[in-house]
Amino acid sequence: MSSEKRDLTTEFEAAYAGTPPWDIGRPQPAFASLAAGGGLGPRVLDVGCGTGEHALMAAEAGCEAVGIDIAPSAIRSASAKADARGLTARFVVGDARQLDRLEEEFDTILDCGLFHVFDDEDRQPFVESLGRALRPGGRYCMLCFSDAEPGDWGPRRVTQAEIRAAFADGWTVESIEPTDLHVTLRPEPARSWLALVDRRP
């Protein structure tokens, strides 16, 4: 695990030497709609937060917001954004597979493009980690590339069946809907899923 963590840190640090494809400088519309509709709980964790747009969105909506990312450069950028915008959000360097180290519990966990990064070996540890950080009855909101996106560029594609299988034990998959995930590489968004998954009480 430790060697994998070092590899992920190196990979994502390198991405933030420039502008990563996922860093569009604003919240993804699917998550912005959730926030506008009051779909965020009082305490929000943004896993794989990058430069912090979704944690800052939650803070602006009045939530207590925390962002975690494995790349120190991303966390520095997120903290600078919070200061510049006068928003209160806390950003932490850490591994989303080890959320218990935060020793905190959240009502909502946002995930924009992290689930689809993990390989099969790391997917279940990640889901178990989510369960340790999300309160019973809390909601995990996830955006990932769907199998409807053509080609082989970018991250792995995910099927609805894979999402349901990953969250079969101790979770309720409330909905999986097609949506757009905007990227910096091209004008048109990628075909994606918005999955809303509740941790069973």
TL;DR of this structure?
With 201 residues, this protein is α/β, with parallel strands linked by helices.
Structure explained in plain terms:
The protein is 32% helix and 28% strand. The protein is built from six helices and seven strands. It has a seven-stranded mixed β-sheet, with helices on both faces. The protein is globular, with a radius of gyration of 15 Å. It has a single domain (2-199), classed as Vaccinia Virus protein VP39 (Rossmann fold, 3-Layer(aba) Sandwich), CATH 3.40.50. The longest helix has 14 residues, at 2-15. With 201 residues, the chain is of the alpha/beta class.
Structural descriptors:
201 residues; alpha/beta; Rossmann fold; 7 strands; 32% helix
Write the layout of secondary structure elements.
Elements: H1 2-15, H2 29-36, E1 43-47, H3 53-60, E2 64-69, H4 72-85, E3 89-93, E4 106-112, H5 120-133, E5 134-145, H6 160-166, E6 171-181, E7 190-199
Parallel strand pairs: 1-2, 1-4, 2-3, 4-5
Antiparallel strand pairs: 5-7, 6-7
The tally of strands reads: 7
Q: For the terminal residues, how far apart are their CA atoms?
A: 30 Å
Name the overall outline. globular
Instruction: Decide which structural class fits the backbone.
Output: alpha/beta
Low-pLDDT windows of residues: 1-6
CATH-derived topology: Rossmann fold
Kindly state the mean pLDDT as a whole number?
A: 94
- CATH class descriptor name: Alpha Beta
Our Rg estimate from Cα atoms comes to 15 Å
Major beta-sheet overview: 7 strands, mixed
Please tell me the CATH architecture by its name. 3-Layer(aba) Sandwich
CATH superfamily descriptor: Vaccinia Virus protein VP39
Strand content: 25-35%
How do the strands line up in the largest sheet?
3-2-1-4-5-7-6
Number of helices: 6
The succession of helices and strands, N to C, reads HHEHEHEEHEHEE
Count up the domains: 1
Instruction: Name the helicity range.
Output: 25-40%
